[in-house]
Amino acid sequence: MTEINRKSDEQESETAAKQRARPLLGLQIPRQTAPKAENFLLDPKETEAWFDALPMANVGETARKVYKALIDFNRIELPDLLRAKTVEKFRPPVEYITSNLQKHYVDVGLPLSPKGWKTASLARELQKELAISYKVIIERMINGDATAFDRRLLVIALHRTLHYLGHSLLQNALIYATWPDGIWREINAIYAYASQNNVHELPVKSDDGGNAAVSTTIQDQFKALMLFASATPHRLRQSHARLLYAHLQEWAQYASILTEDDGGTSLGRFNVDLWTDSAPMHNALRTPVPGKRIAILDVRELLKHLRGEFEEAPWDNRSTLQSVRPALTRPLLRMLILAWSRPPDRRFVRTKLNFNLNVVAGLHAVYGNLRADNEPPYATRPAPLFTLEETEKTPARNKIQWSSGILEHASLAPLDSDFADESLFRDSFLASSRSPVPPAPMSPPGTTEAEPLEAEQGTEVTRHAVKTINESAGGYCIHWHGEDIPRVKIGELIGVESPQDRRKYGLGVIRWMKQQPDQSLDLGLEIMSTRCAAADVREDKTGSACKGAPSFKCLVINDTDPASNSTASLVMSAMNLKTGVDLVLSTNDKEQRIRLTKLVEFSSAFARYHFEFVRPEGGQDAADERHEDEFSDLWGSL
Fold first, then answer.
1. Which residue spans within 383-463 are E strands per DSSP?
2. Which residues of 109-125 are buried (b: 16+ CB within 10 A; e: fewer)?
3. Average pLDDT of 191-202?
4. Is the model's pLDDT at 64 over the cut of 80?
5. Domains of the chain by start residue, with CATH
């Protein structure tokens, strides 16, 4: 009998051990071990002194110390209350480090350099470790390992975990990587547990150094993360993804979680299966039944709010450069409204075809190659604004030599980020850390960080060979891989060389990106036109005393095929001109008067206008037009 009892006790202990090995929520946490006696994290006073002594001016050293301490902190056994108080002290330095690390992988173009990739990985790991700290508290309390069950501490830990899992989503979106395995299973499980225990609507203060009066709930956090994922951030520029994330808590107030199906249309509604590792999807792709397993996010009120903001939003954020918070622009709001309204359906059938394409990146590259004669194509960057040379008398001082005629074509491209990240200075390389001396020639505002010295050293080729993964009537999915390819961003113009004639180019736009594990990129390229022409445009000053108006490089899309039902378009590097004014368009030594009728698309990379040709009054063209109109009713009956 004693032997039977002993075996029964062993089976019960094994069952209990298995239950502890399988946490109730299944959150991914590392194995905990007993800490060493000299570990400073065991003493709150030593911990406080350690944080005060961090060399915050040295970001690299601070990041090394914080990362190592956070790794050790998450793998030792500590009382829940002490762990909660200590992890709160990690939050400000991690936020400071992450904001400083972003300058190495945000607004520099992709694919990232090895240093940029490693820096982005460090930022993701810091956010992941902070989430782990709170997940350890959750698992111990839910599994009964805590000495005393503190309901308030559990709610805070659930709330903070969602907060830092959301930051992990943001860091992955900034480098266009796929969602980490298991992250949505944890997000969904935390919300399901909180809602089933009726703690999902309890307010929790952020306590992150901002407005202490702002409180959000676990449900607010969950709605914000559903909004972020359903906005398809791999289609957004990095600055737009950060701007979207900054507004999520505000916009989450206009969204709601449905408890029952209202039987209406699926427009503006997304659902997620709380028992799976899946991100939210549009209701049109899966018709669920609301319940404990399914959560349905209704964003129809948010769409009404955004449409109101769209009418008052500017086209770009140049007018709000001095403000603390960048303004929401019409292009960004339009993309969000479309993403949250309709499902991501495909307009054209996709066919798997693998073939090589020769492409160039940027409007200046396409313009230069179209204007090239029999010589090798122009370099894939604009001409220098000015050069810096050292004189013999004053070698420490740079002499500025202006090149003639270049400034006529210079224009200020709209900035795609605020001044806080110093992107303006990085783009011009006046404050770049790569070289102690500013390179010559200098790049104008709007060029990417990868471009400067490569052309001067002759290492960059003009055309870049890429391989298509599939194609459709609307464009290609191409694989971007190699060491010599230029860095690109969402919305970048790509010139596709014609296989028959290397002097002819189609024009495409990068609509989405996905970073692969081997640091290569898959790009979604929408073909804007199968052919384009290089041209120059300037304001018409014939009736004005002011002569010599500045001209701007542009690309003309003028498909004459009536079946295409397309309108002539003008593509420029920035929104330099106003609609409704008469301009002079110069193509192949031929000048024509045009009038811009509509701004079709605008981004930080280019602006596209519709235009129409303007015939002179009383000229030969007018007579020809009247002569042609005489037989206009005859052509259709012949």
1. 386-390, 398-402
2. bbbbbeebbebbbbbbe
3. 93
4. yes
5. 18-341 (no CATH), 346-380+460-531 (2.40.10.220), 534-630 (2.40.10)
